[in-house]
Structure formats: C-alpha cells, structure tokens
Amino acid sequence: MNSYILKRLLSAVPVLLGITLVVFLIMSLIPGDPATAILGSYATAENVERLNRQLGLDRSLPEQYVIWLTNMLQGDFGRSFSLNRPVLDEVLDRFGATLILAGVSLVLCSIFGVVAGVISAARQYGLADKAITFAVLIGISIPSFFLGMMMILLFAIQLRWLPVSGMYSIYGGGDLPDLLRHLAMPALALSVVATGVIARLSRSAMLEVLRQDFVRTARAKGVPERRVIWRHALKAAMVSIIPVIGVQAGFVLSGAVYIEMVFQWPGVGRMLVEAILRRDLLLVQGGVVIVAACYVLFNLIVDVAQSLLDPRVKT
Amino acid sequence: MTETALPASPPKPSAAARAGTFLRLFARNRMAAFGGGLLALILLVALAAPILPLQDPFAQDTTQRFLRPFSEGHWLGTDHLGRDLLSRLIWGTQLSLLVGVSATLLAALAGSTLGVVAGFLGGRIDNVIMRSVDTVMAFPYILLALAIVAALGPGLVNALIAVAVVNIPFFARNIRGVTVTLANKEFVDAARLSGMGDTRIIASEIVPNILPVIVIAMSTTVGWMILETAGLSFLGLGSQPPVPDLGSMLGEGRNALISHPHTSIIPGLMIFAIVIGVNLLGDGIRDALDPRLRSGALTRPLPATLVDRAETPAIAAKPDALLSLEDLRVEFRLGRRTLKAVNGVSLDIAPGECLGLIGESGSGKSVTALSVMGLVASPPGVIAGGALRFQGRDLLAMKPGELRRLRGDKVAYIFQDPLATLHPLYRIGEQIAEAIRVHHPVPQAEAMARAVALLKQVRIPNAKSRAGNYPHELSGGMRQRVGIAMALANEPELIIADEPTTALDVTVQAQILKLLEDLRRERGLAILFITHDFGVVAQLCDRVAVMYAGEIVESGPAQAILDAPAHPYTRRLIACVPELGGGRRTLAAIPGLPPGADDLPQGCAFAPRCDKAQAACRAGRVALTGQEPGRGVRCLFPETAEDRTETA
Lengths: 315, 648
Ligand code: SF4
Fold this sequence. Notes:
- Chain A is mainly alpha-helical.
- Chain A has helices spanning 2-27, 34-39, 45-55, 61-73, 87-122, 127-141, 144-158, 176-210, 213-221, 225-262, 268-277, 281-309, and strands at 79-80, 85-86.
- Chain B contains 24 helices and twelve strands.
- The longest helix of chain B is centred in the N-terminal third of the chain and has 37 residues, at 85-121.
- Chains A and B meet through α1, α6, α7, α8 and α9 of A and α4, α5, α8, α10 and α13 of B.
C-alpha cells in the first residue's frame, strides 16, 4: 500500500513539471515586449529593465523557463504590480476562500449526487426515478452563473433569507454561522451541475452492479434489501463513482470562478479574472500554477482513496 | 458445451422483443425530439436575424432605459442603455452559437489532426503528443482558458481560441484511439504494400473512417463550448461592449440584477434553452447508440421474483416433504415476447434427502432452483403459475420480509463461480459473519468467531488468517469452500447448490463433493443439487430428476436411473459420462441443441433430436408416467433393455 502511494506521488512530478511548462509556453505567447505587457501602466524604463533582469526576459526561452522554475521552487512567484505585494501571498490569502467554497460544494454534490443516483437506480422506472431524472436534466442544463443570479433574486431579494454577497474575508470578523450564511447560496449554486453529473453516473453504476452475481448472493443470504442496496451494491459502485467525483472536482473548481464573480466571493477565481482585466500577468501566471498544482495533488488523493476502497488495485 | 453462461440470464431477445423495448424507450425519444425541435427553432431564429424586422441592437435611447418586457415597441423591454432586448437577444444568440460552433470546429480540427498523427505514426511522436495532451488535461479546464485569455488579452476571438484549445485533448484522445485500431487493419496494410505514402493513406483510408467519430464527438461537446464561451463573455473576458453575445448580456444584466432582473433573466433563459436542447438531443442519440439500454439489460432485478399466477392452487398437505414444487411455471417476459423457461415442474424433497436436478444449460434447471427463494432476476423473470411450499408454507404467497427471513437461514444457496458470487470488496470472514448477523442478533466478534469456525469446518487451512482475505486472494476451490461455509452459517434445512463444482478442476471438484457428502451425513441436510453431469449425481444424490426444455422428462432413484435410464435423453446424458466421477463432461455427444424457450415443439420437446421419434411423439403433449414405483418418464417409447445394451 505504501509503495503504491509513493509510486503515485512520484508519478505526479512529471505532471507538475508539465503544468509549469504549459503555463510558461502560454505566457510566452504574449504579444510584444513581455516586460512592458507585464508591467502595463507601471512600465517605466527603469521598471522594465529591472523586470527583464529579474525574470531573465532578455535571455532565451529555455533559460527563462529554468529561471522561472527555480524562482518558484524557492517560493518566489514574482510580484503583483497592481496589488504591490508578492503573488504567493495574495494567492494564499485568496485560496482559502476558494477551498472552502469548492470543498463544501464538492461534498454537497458527492452526497446528493450519490444518494440521488442510488435512489434512482433502486426505484428504476418508478416515480422517484422519474422525478430525479428530470431534476438532473434541469440541473445539468442550467449555467451555474445564471443559477447563482436567480438564487440571489429568490433567496436574498424575494425571501430575504440570505445575504446577497459581502463575503469579504474568511479570516477576520465573521464567525461560523456568518460564514455558513454567506456560503449557503454560492456552494449550492456551484454544486448543482456536478450533483447532476454524479447522480447520472451513480445511477448507471448502481444498475450495472445490481445485476451482478454477488448481489444475488447477498439476497440469497437473507440480507435486507436496504442493506443490499446501500452496502453491497453501493460499495461496489463506488469503485466507478469515485473517479468521476475526482473529475468533477476539476469542474467544481472551474465553476468556482463564475460563482465567485456572481457572489463577490473573495476567492482565487475572482482574483484571476480581476487580474486578467487589470493585465496583472504575473499574478495570473502564479495563480494558475498554484491552483493547478493543488488540483493534481487532489487527484492523487482520489487515486489513493480508490486504492483503499478496492483491494484489487494494490500493486 | 461447458456451462459458462449465467444460469438465470434470459436467452437473447428476438426482433419482436427489440421492437417492444424500442416502444418502451419511445418516451425518451420524444424528449430527444423535443430537444431537437427546440434547438432547430433557436437556430432558425438566430440565422434569420438579418431578415427579421428587428430594431438596431446598438441603438441607444437614454429616455427608454430598463423598459419592462411587453412594453410598446420593445417586446422584451430594453437594457441599461435603452437598447432593444429582443434584437440584442437574437443577435446575441447568433453570435454565441457562431462562436461556440467555431470553437468546436477549431478544437475538432486541431485535436483530430493531432490524434491521427499520433495514432498513425505511433512511437516517439505518439508519445510526445499524448504526454502533452495528458498534461493539458491535468488542468481544471478554466484555468487553462484563463491563462490563454490572459496572455492574448480579453476579446471574443481570444476567448474562442482559449475554449477551443482547452477542448483539443478530448478530440485528440478519442481520435487517436480510433486511428490506432484503423492503422492496424488489413486495408491500411494493403495500401502500404501498394506503395502509398503516409499522407495518401491518411487522406484516403483513415479520414473517411474517422469522420463519423469526429461528428459524434463534436455533437457531444458543442453545447458545452457554447456555454463556455458564453461564460468567458460573462466574466468580461470574451465579447466586448457594445457587441452582444448571450454571456456578455448576462454579465451586463448582472449589474442591474436587483433593480431590473429581466435584463439578466432573458439572456439566461436563452442559454438554458440552448443547453437543455443540446442535452436532450445528446441523450437521445446516446441511448439510441447504446445497445445495452435497448436490450433492457440495464434493468435492475427486484428483491424477489415477481409472482403473477392466474390462480392460486389449492394446497394439498404433504407432510413428509421439506420442499415441494407443484406445477411450477416460470417465464421471462421481454417486451411483448414471453419465453417459457420452466413449464410445470413438480418435485418433492424429503428432509435429509439429496435430489439431483440434471440437464443441459438452458433446460430450466437453474431457473427452477432460483425460483424457490425468489431469486430469478425480475424483470424479466416472472413466476407464472404453480406452487412452492417449504415445510408446508406457501412461499409464493409470502411477503418479501418473510421470504427474506427464510433465505440463508432455513434455505441456503451455493452458486457456481464463487469469484463472481462473493462480494469483491469485503473480506470473506465479514461476508460469512454477515450471513449470521442478518438472521441472529449476535455481536460482531462472536459472528466472526463463528465464521472462522465455519471456515475450519469446510477445511480451509489457517482459517483465522484466511478470514481476513478478499475473494480475489483465494483459489477457485477455496472460494467455493467459502461459499459453502456461508451456506452452512445458519445450519439450514435445505441447501440448493447450483452447479457448485462446474468452474473447478477435477481434483478440487472431487474434494468439494466429498465435503458436501460429509456435511450432509453429519447434519442431515437436504440438498437440491443442480448439475449437468451425471457423474456428480452418481456420487452424491439419492434421487434424480432430469430436465429438458423446462420439463422433467424422467425422475426416480439415482441408482435405478443410472442402471436403467428410461428416457432416450437420459440414456444419452449418461452415455456422455465415460467413467463415473471423471470430472467435467461435455454434452456435445448429443447431436442438436435443445429447443429455444420460445419455440417449443408441439409434442415431445426432445423429438427433433430423438432417434426414436415417431409421428405420435409430435402429435401432442407427452405425460409423465410411472412404470415402476417412484419412477416417472415422459416418453411414449421408453428405453427397453435391448436399447440399452445396444449403446453399451
Ligand atoms: S416421446 Fe418420442 S420423441 Fe420423445 S423422447 Fe420418447 S421416443 Fe423420443
């Protein structure tokens, strides 16, 4: 088991390197003089010269990449010019908010999605199945940003249950109930599409499993039907559901960008969009690399979870 | 014919059944048609934008700001600059569709090219391309899109490029897969031998074959890409003012969401309509392409087999029978087609008796066995008639809960192929302990101790440590012992063993049979033993019933039937066993195949394969008659002593 985890950890290294390379290549697409583009309105002759020296922008591309990579490994992701602070500090400040939002959404969509899928499969062609199938269709068809806006109209404006936005910082001030009140709508809006996808997949995975011989064995043993479904069948179905949850994590993280904009959530997604609009390229570059790296590590965790569930994966 | 097919699985559906399932799926197809219609309508209106009598989408009028829908002159109202929303919506839809479709085409073109090159050339190039594709796929997609837009600068074309690039890997992977299979086909080899260059082979042989795949891949991603480009515009990174697309309209509307929600709701609903249309259509296409859905193979079996008897037969008291089957009828109802798997089987098992039920695969023996405890997969299986009684109680009239309490407690099953029948993700000790705990409220530790004791009883060495193993860590024979231990867990009165030794090799088979025989003697178990092998019957059974095409064709004491089979089919089955207990047998020695369960002959079902068949045999149903006490045979011209010496 430990050797499996180690193997997976090592296999993440080339992927992480690949990610930095892709980001680097994209950034080298910047038209015109990069230093001027990066500095934008701060581009005085002196600043341009300093940045060129710092990032090695006057050197060849491979050299630039190595310099950039070495800097990053030392924790130096450059400086955000519009915010006048190190990129790493800003990203770390914002990342917590995104993690809370995306994490809670992922938990919500996993639970709701799997439960809905299991009920749907157990009651195949019944009323519950039809209702869930219909709700799933609607759910996966609503753009999350539109859904978020409609939720604001309904819950914040019409019903006045929840605050519109105004989550400024997750670190100071607000206590847990306050955080939950601010989190409820964005997390829900963000989880809807993924819930639908997971529900669909769970349903078909369960249908697949329920036909298998070991389910008949469980019934022949006299295992109560509820236990047959929620233990025997679901455990086996999880083997194909967990990877999908891993994939959905990427979609939830992506959707968080929209939701953070709609709900003014102080996360890394909103930071990126605002940075792009301000042309703060180093901030974008650093943010993308850090978030993508975290996503790779998350997938690693999913793989390990999978191997813990399924003893047959052990290698 | 070795029996590898699942005993209870219904025969393949015919054309008629396919038509039936098609009808059942009609509701879904109607949804798909609705989606297609909706999309067609939107597309038509968007394309017709230049010729529709629309107002100028850019004309501002500050006196007419934020008019509500249904205002005079502005059906959908106006936006924050007093521009006509209907006009902007239709032009915006056109632009969004255009951008989304262009991004799809771009991604398809670039991705497919990469995929074909990688798949066709293979080797180093393939490796480099696929590694890059994997790396791109390691990003949450929007991060990559944001990075590209950041580098190129916000704008609709750049957003289009970003969305296209993010989707290239999807096409590259799919198309590479198809190309690799194609590149190894004979016609490509033939083209190579005839001296064609790579480029010409790709153009003439590969591309025409992968086009359909590309089109399908495009149809599944286009909705997504429309949504994604709209999303980037919504963030302000795509379409720039004043040009409207659906995303930027929604983004602008957001600023007035609370005061003038219609400016957001209108473009939002349009995006929703497009996406739901694409999804419905896509689902319809996928269902139509997925043969499993059509064959109804993805229906889940109910907790117990459905019972649909025309009448409940009067229960005659049979005090000495532990289990009795009376005129049992089981059908598989597949759409409008009905396959009769069991046609009126009557059997009795006394306490402590071992009855062998023997026949070829498809004879209905497994279905008979599974129906005792309602384990025939349903749908499509239905118990259509007859009665099942256990210790005098009518099993078919029982509530699901009552039946469940009997299962595994008084009546236990041992199945064929224990790799598939044991749960792959639970330790075997847990699985046995569970069998105990669902019937008796004992603590987990005690149940585990009993599980280990049971494993010892079925002669598994190191039972204690073995209990912590998963099924895949055991050998086939060990797994079958686990299956037996599980069946014994609650000291049942009756064990129904459905070909428990078929998947095992000869020595292990002999060991398992010995084990069952010993257990039977020690515990006074009754066993219903399903097999296709007379050798096994000879070793274990007191009595035997031979099944053919869903009916019992001969029954009687095992030794008597082995010595003097009365039915021609029985004689041939026995002839297939050169020496008793010799292990796996094939039944290929009997020419012909058993009749399909949906076209049973009118008279004797064996007539087409019987060398003694005469006109009378085909005339009408042959009854089961007894010549000697305790024996019955369903044949008009039973075997005589001369017949038997002839084959011997
Ligand atoms: S009834 Fe006729 S066809 Fe049928 S087994 Fe007997 S002899 Fe053969």
